Amino acid sequence: MRLRNLILITVIVPLFAILMAFSLVAIYSLEDNLRSKLETEVQIITQATGASLGYAIDRSEPNALEDALQSAFSFHRIYGAHVFDTEGHPLYGLGLGEALFSPDNIREVAQSGKLQTAYRNDGDWNYYSALKPLTTPSGEVIGVLQVNRLNTGIENYADFIGLMALSIFIIGVIGIVLSIWWGFRHHIERPLARVLTVMERVAAGDRSQRVAVHGSDEYRRLGLALNDMLDAMAEKDADIETRRQKEIELEKRLRKSRKLAELGVLAAGVAHEIGTPLTVIEGQAQRLSRHGQLGADEQGRIERIRDEVSRIVLIVRQLMDLGRRHNVEKDTVTLDEVFEGAQALVEEDLARHDIRLDIDVSSPPPALLANGQQLVQVFTNLLRNAAQAAGVSHIRLSARTDNTELTLWIEDDGEGISEADKTRVFDPFFTTKPVGLGSGLGLSMVHRIVNDHGGTIGVFDSTLGGAGFEITLPREDTIA
Question: Is 222 within the bounds of a domain?
Fold first, then answer.
């Protein structure tokens, strides 16, 4: 059942029923009181006049009879006074209503000796009449007195007043009900409907809905509270979505870390097996270079062999380091020291390619519990890769701390990294550089160092237009 109908049934209808019952009882009591007053007055007048009339009839004094009847008219609204003998024949009378009673009625009163009253109509007139037996001093009934009082004024209009009161009450009830209905609909039902509509749309998935804040104070407070709740829900949803995306990204990075660890173990095993033959080749080449009988051309070839062997040895060492879990020796180092150390190592590359480097670190810069040399190696590799990428003229280093982690970004404005290559950039031997210009192990080493520090590294599209790398380090390894 709707709230409007429920209020009408449980509150308004019982209230009006009680008021109607009270009004009817009040009207009935008023009418009964008026009638009782009328009857009492007529009976008193009849009793007072009856004594003198009985004496006048007994003495046969017409003048006294006339005077007694005249005295009855001194009372308010007495319109008739008549004297009858015991057989119902009129003896003397003044005023209206002589024929209100039949001779039989009069004889019955004379025989009973008791006062009788009744309401009588005579044409358009309505009377209240009393019949009183007239007696001698000895108690003998010698006649009957009839006193008529016209039922006019409020007594005559009691029924009409009741009808009018009932009509006014019904009209008032209808007006009040309509007013309540309109007020309920305008001030309660419509605002509730608006709130309900918003809630239904929110339940259907449209979290952007908000309640219009206007109307009474209660609805304004309700609208503000509901909007605050929806805003809080939206913030929670956004936070949950952000956390979910971070968890997905973290899971991808963890899978990548496991994959790289497996590849590192494999690469380390292969490097170990390659190490012994390389040592033999290096030794034999060194012995050949000592022979003085070789010409300059042969000596140059032998030196190239030794250079390439050294290059292979360096790659083998990197592979072995890649597959080995290191216990990082940490010390306190400030972030600006790390950035400045990396900048110094790549300063020549930046100047050669006319690249501007911006460093954005809060003041004072965060202090880390980390291996400063390894972190310098990380940012040196990242800066050098950015400097060697096509179309780069601007590189930005920045950092931010919060309650759980330290986040660092390195971004450039170059051509960026394709979506297909983003999942492979940390794989050993993967490189987009021409053959002979890179081993493809630099970013793998960066990934290993970050993991050794308990952090993660990922790739994203920079707002500068090129590639971006995001590094996170746990907050417990950071000194604020």
Answer: no
